[in-house]
């Protein structure tokens, strides 16, 4: 590439926003929740916006996901993570933005909400950001402003915004763990037993930055808290795998661990690797009298690979829900309160 070509490319990027350079999705475009509908792809094909079937043959999630890797990892989802039936429709409307309708097309299940101006088109950007663009080329709505459980490079978590972990690996409704950027500038990880609770149960990580006002995931793959005096509290280790050769994401996993992952862009049977995570030991970090920790009641938390927890029922106990290994355990024996403690866990 010649010097003039490089200069011209930089000039074009400065003059035209990324959403203008990307492929546009025209008004009236729609997606149907089935096995045949082609998703809306970013220009490079790295990201897709569309319906993904989740376990059940007839239940789908409207989401953004990596389109070129084997497990098609989901990085954002609509409708509070609730699945919709086969035949549901997502359509681009000039007044209402993106609308998710029931299979009959009559009931609105979810939408991007009132956006204040007419939509001209939509774009699935190569950053993983889905954008609704107005007739004056302004950004009316973008998925980056409404994160679910994941941040992407070039994305910012502002004060009073949050990430919410999903309930389990394949159950996308809100779980118990939250990453919050507090109004006092502290970045915290907290638990909440029920999404309707006003107060949080326990705080299991606090960076104590105080003067911070946003969490930044920059274009080079570095994650830091930007302070009001423009100083940075960097969370990422000094060596970051090349962002041109690797996908990066920062996810609050269903087990409460905040993890920076990277994944080679090269083809082959590649997997996500962990660059760093918080807290160091979540089994010890959540010690509170209210509610349970990572594991359910009577379920013992252990630390495994990459600082990830796994749960085991004690001897003489079994899972209440055999399909939820992180859930609570019940005794196999009849508990006894007599003075000799005759209840026998082996019976």
From TrEMBL:
The keyword Signal applies. This is Bulb-type lectin domain-containing protein. InterPro entries: Bulb-type_lectin_dom, Bulb-type_lectin_dom_sf, G-type_lectin_kinases/EP1-like. Residues 1-22 form the signal peptide. PANTHER family: G-TYPE LECTIN S-RECEPTOR-LIKE SERINE/THREONINE-PROTEIN KINASE SD2-5, G-TYPE LECTIN S-RECEPTOR-LIKE SERINE_THREONINE-PROTEIN KINASE RLK1. It comes from Solanum verrucosum. Residues 22-145 form the Bulb-type lectin domain. Keywords: Glycoprotein, Signal. Pfam families: B_lectin. The keyword S-adenosyl-L-methionine does not apply.
